[in-house]
Design a protein that fits this description.
The structure holds 2 protein chains of 2 kinds. By secondary structure, chain A is α/β, with parallel strands linked by helices. Chain A has 11 helices and 14 strands. Chain A has 2 domains: 215 residues, P-loop containing nucleotide triphosphate hydrolases (Rossmann fold, 3-Layer(aba) Sandwich), CATH 3.40.50.300; 63 residues, UreE, C-terminal domain (Alpha-Beta Plaits, 2-Layer Sandwich), CATH 3.30.70. In chain A, helix 5 packs parallel to helix 6. In chain B, strand 1 and strand 2 form a beta hairpin. The chains are: A alpha/beta, B mainly alpha.
């Protein structure tokens, strides 16, 4: 079906659980070949949205089409072309790596020979060749996550849903998973990624939406969002409250904005060097200055606030 | 491949059944041994131990012969029940197996039908082994005794459906001890396996009639004791009816529970 390259289309999408509104009228569209991110604190509605796309949670209201098909009526066809990497490990613990892929491939009615070939290709792709005959219960967290990625690819999906794919992994394991995920992009495949790691979103996402309490706060390319809401660079000033207030008064009009925190103040600027020189010239006692590139995390915290939402 | 019956993809159900078989194959060597011991223990303890004190015969059979048909269907009951109670609960809440399965073209309802089919399969394994032990002991003979196999299948189906229905209400795993002690144990003792229900007070006889295992025992005796009569057809209808209703109800409820 020709959908003009749009793979997932949501309009005024809603979902309530009892009295709690999990998704409150969101709209987005994803395209073939891109990684589309859903960022937000816990409880923002990321996972619920993913579950609706994957058909494991009925749509509460609005429109949701996947590959041009309505999820309410065509879910079997949609799931045939969808891959899901879940948040929780739901591998078959009593079966080996290879058996996990075989059993999962059968659910898609793949012909035996096709399945056998894909199982071996995917074992190599996620670098689990040595572990192929090993029971899943003996794998490390990172290996299990790679196997979940491999499993999600068994049907050569057009869309892959990645629900917090690296939560709980150590840095080495996380980078290995990222590397695999980057290789999935292109090939006209759409990746839908939820995460609360800003770095992950910056590493992988072409476009993203920032969610809070079931609503979209903003959407766009990571760099554009940073430019729009913050600036290119950030100078962090760690000092006493009095000095921080002096600094804020001094830079008023010279910076793109600032954000006062508990122990430091963030100054947003497009060029940190003159600002730094200026501040050093102020001879501030016991003050630490730190200049860095602005990140999505700055945008995220600015938009969603710094207090815990739970 | 897209064929569905009443909205159920039978291929999807079959793949879930296959999944269970794959897992079972890895553990059956440990699992299957108790299936042999259980009937031997019961037949020896009750049939030979207790039976030695029972003078004369019951309804024309030795005590050992009398209890064998009921014990066969009771073991089918256990097989069907265990799969759709503890095993499914663990898969649902600890293994998150159905989240994985339903991310594929297999829907919740297909998966649950697959589980019922697997429960029946386990009941067949339990019941058939028991039957073979009784046959070896000379308690079942002649080709017609093989007709006990469909009785095993129906019994396993009925208890798989009932277990699944109970599972659809269970929130914590300890709730199963009620199902086992307050429901299955009395069924086991008062369904005419060890003594004729006719000897009970009238109210208990009526109560027994309404319990499911009683009708399975009647059918099993009907086949193995050669007492199949008009009343046995009513037993058959009773078992098929309960199996159909509980299975359907359970699948509908679990679809609602799991699709949130």
């Amino acid at each position: 079906m020709d959908t003009g390259g749009i793979t997932v289309l949501a309009r005024d999408l809603r979902k309530r659980f009892g009295g709690v509104t999990a998704v409150d009228g969101i709209g987005f569209e994803t395209r073939a070949g891109e990684c589309f991110g859903f960022l937000g604190p816990n409880g923002a509605g990321k996972t619920t949205t993913m579950r609706m796309v994957g058909g494991s949670s009925p749509v509460g209201g609005g429109t949701l089409q996947v590959l041009g098909l309505d999820v309410a009526t065509r879910i079997r066809e949609i799931k045939r072309r969808l891959g899901v990497v879940p948040q929780d490990d739901n591998l078959e613990q009593d079966l080996t790596v290879r058996q996990n892929l075989q059993v999962y491939g059968r659910y898609f009615d793949l012909p035996r020979a096709v399945l056998a070939g894909r199982v071996e290709t995917l074992i190599d792709f996620v670098q689990l060749r040595d572990k192929a005959p090993v029971n899943v219960r003996y794998l490390s967290g990172g290996m299990k996550r790679r196997l979940l990625v491999a499993r999600a690819l068994i049907n050569e999906p057009r869309i892959v849903i990645l629900d917090e794919p690296t939560t709980g992994l150590d840095p080495q394991a996380r980078h290995l998973v990222w590397e695999k995920l980057r290789r999935l992009k292109g090939e006209e495949r759409t990746l839908l990624l939820t995460t609360h790691y800003m770095e992950e979103a910056e590493q992988l996402c072409d476009r993203l939406v920032i969610l809070e309490r079931g609503r979209i706060l903003d959407a766009g390319r990571p760099r554009d969002l940073v430019k729009k809401h913050v600036s290119r660079e950030v100078v962090e000033v760690t000092a006493s409250r009095a000095i921080r207030e002096r600094v804020v008064a001094h830079v008023e009009g010279k910076v793109a904005g600032y954000e006062m925190l508990e122990e430091k103040v963030l100054l947003f600027t497009d060029d940190s060097e003159p600002l730094l020189r200026d501040l050093i010239g102020q001879k501030l006692e016991r003050t630490e200055l730190y200049a860095r590139r602005a990140t999505l995390e700055d945008v995220f915290l600015k938009l969603t606030g710094r207090s815990l939402t739970e | 491949m897209n064929g569905t019956v009443l909205g159920i993809s039978l291929r999807g159900a079959f793949h879930v059944w296959q999944r269970n078989l794959t897992v079972y194959k890895k553990t059956y060597k440990i699992n299957i041994l108790p299936n042999f011991f259980e009937p031997v223990i019961y037949l020896v303890a009750m049939g030979m131990g207790l039976g030695a004190y029972i003078r004369g015969d019951i309804e024309g059979f030795s005590y050992l012969q009398y209890i064998a048909p009921g014990l066969i269907v009771a073991s089918a009951m256990n097989g069907g029940t265990f799969e759709t109670t503890y095993n499914i609960f663990v898969k649902m809440h600890f293994g998150k197996t159905y989240e994985a399965v339903t991310a594929t073209p297999v829907n919740v309802e297909d998966a649950m039908v697959g589980e019922i089919l697997w429960g029946i399969t386990r009941g067949i394994i339990y019941g058939t082994i028991f039957f073979l032990v009784t046959a070896v002991m000379g308690l079942a003979s002649g080709w017609t005794s093989l007709l006990v196999l469909p009785v095993i299948v129906l019994t396993a189906w009925m208890f798989a459906g009932m277990g699944l229905l109970y599972t659809s209400y269970v929130k914590i795993i300890d709730a199963y001890s009620y199902y086992y002690t307050i429901w299955l144990t009395p069924l086991f003792l008062f369904s005419g396996i060890f003594f004729p229900v006719g000897g009970l007070p009238p109210w208990a006889r009526v109560a027994a009639w309404f319990t499911p295992l009683y009708h399975s025992v009647n059918m099993s005796k009907g086949v193995l004791h050669g007492t199949w009569g008009q009343g046995t057809w009513i037993d058959l209808a009773w078992v098929v009816g309960v199996a159909t209703v509980t299975s359907t109800w359970a699948v509908l409820r679990l679809r609602k529970n799991l699709l949130r």
